[in-house]
Amino acid sequence: MTITKSQDLPNLPPRKVDLFTGVVHHDTYPGIDPVTKSDCSGKAILITGASKGIGRSVAVGYAQAGASHIALAARSSTAETAAAVLSAASAAGRAPPSVLELELDVCDKASVEAAARVLEAQWGRLDVLVNNAGHLARFAPLLDTDEEDYARTWDVNYWGTFRVTKAFLPLMLRSGDKTVVNVTSLAAHFAGIGGGAYHVSKFALVRFTEFVQDEYASQGVLAYSVHPGGTPTELSSRLPDELRFRMTDTPELAAHSIPFLTSKRREFLGGRWISCMWDLPRLLEMEEEVVAGDLLKFKCTGL
């Protein structure tokens, strides 16, 4: 087993789910370098929750990988992300992408559908959809939960992804790579006290991803559930102390992993759960094992 990490990170014992490829990453690494290992030139990308956190980092990663069109969708201003995207493309020696800033609230159907119309009118195509917008309710046992906060977690994490996918998929089906990345979480694998809203919404999102794959694979769709790693963000700051200490992964890990994953069609990974903490080049070498065992999908043990 190999573990790579940035110099500032503490030594943490890996969990079983981290060890699938035998290498655990907490920082970016040469195998997923966006300049040398990922070619997203010509691709049109849409990222939700792009104003900050993981969304902003992934947008920058796509710029470094040479994406020609990058749409930044969020409720709040994406101006800083847009500037970072153009700067990153220049620093990486890439052509400046066409950047489209979309005001989009994943909880508002009309807002989502309006954004889809704008993108279609501007670009006429979309290759990769990254459903990244997320919300984390305050951890509390069921009887102590704030029902509105609990419901909002579901509205953003599950229904928001549903709304965005439903609105943009018709455009994607007409051309392009037809790739959907649903940013889920390691939390989908675990139960535990207080995390019902977030954990279960991410569990449901993984199954939703499988349905998108199964229903539209015949039309060329590839849908992935992707754990971005445990990164310190505004969202993860709401975690309780006993979980927040694991937020030690750099933003660049997801920022470089997701463009690498979507730079080419990875047919065998469609409908599967993937962790950015794994060694992705090694994961690609495990295709025969993954397919033969129908691995990386949720099942009930013992059945």
Automatic annotation (TrEMBL):
The keyword Protease does not apply. Transmembrane segments: none annotated. This is Related to peroxisomal short-chain alcohol dehydrogenase. Pfam families: adh_short. It comes from Cephalotrichum gorgonifer. One of its GO terms (molecular function) is oxidoreductase activity. Belongs to the short-chain dehydrogenases/reductases (SDR) family. It comes from the Eukaryota. Keywords: Oxidoreductase. The keyword Mitochondrion does not apply. Residues 43-235 form the Ketoreductase domain. PANTHER family: ALCOHOL DEHYDROGENASE.
